Amino acid sequence: MARTYRTKQSAKAERMTKVLLPCEVEGWWEDKRLFLLLSTMKSVEGLNTLIASHTRQYLEPTVLSKRLGHLSGLIVFLKKYCTSRERNIFMRETLPFIAQTASKLDEIVPESGIPIIVQQEGKINVYFVDYVDTVIHVITAPPY
């Protein structure tokens, strides 16, 4: 399903009526590419190699290399706090599942979007792009 990108003005107006998801803004294809790459990772070493290859490959950092750089926090967590068994399960089952599911966000979100929930007392419960982006990218957050 093809999506059109919104201008800053239309995106601001839409935030007032629906949740604006990462798949609805420019740059989604870079995120989708990252998720597809992550879904193929089977080991912490492989993830580390992927990050290193993308950060050395370009003189100027790309969106993808910056996003991959955030995964260094995940690597530290897996190496420092997880047992070998936990790392293997995470890398072989959990990470691929999260990444594959996240890469399909643009396919599963209804064309009409997700409306903002209005509380009974009339106040709007606003979900900003940064909050939703954080939920989707929770696996890329550094530990600090």
Summarize the structure.
The protein has 144 residues and is mainly α. The chain is 58% helix and 3% strand. The chain has eight helices and two strands; from the N terminus they run H-E-H-H-H-H-H-H-E-H.
Helix count from the secondary structure assignment: 8
Order of helices and strands: HEHHHHHHEH
Mean model confidence by pLDDT:
75
Helix content: 55-70%
Main pleated-sheet profile: 2 strands, antiparallel
Domains counted in the coordinates: how many? 1
Strand order of the largest sheet: 1-2
Strand tally is 2
**Rg from C-alpha positions?**
17 Å
Low-pLDDT sequence parts: 120-125
Given helix and strand content, the structural type is mainly alpha
**How would you describe the shape?**
globular
How widely separated are the two ends?
37 Å
> Strand fraction band?
under 5%
What does this structure look like?
By secondary structure, the chain is mainly alpha-helical. The protein has one domain. It has 8 helices and 2 strands; from the N terminus they run H-E-H-H-H-H-H-H-E-H. The chain has helices at residues 8-15, 28-38, 44-57, 63-70, 72-81, 84-103, 105-108, 129-136, and strands at 18-19, 114-115. It has a two-stranded antiparallel sheet with strand order 1-2. Helix 2 packs across helix 4 (63-70), helix 2 (28-38) packs antiparallel against helix 6 and helix 3 (44-57) packs antiparallel against helix 4 (63-70). The relative contact order is 0.20.
Key attributes of the depicted protein:
single chain, 144 residues, mainly alpha, two-stranded antiparallel sheet, 8 helices, 3% strand
Topology, pairings included?
Blueprint: H1 8-15, E1 18-19, H2 28-38, H3 44-57, H4 63-70, H5 72-81, H6 84-103, H7 105-108, E2 114-115, H8 129-136
Helix pairs in contact: 2-4, 2-6, 3-4, 3-5
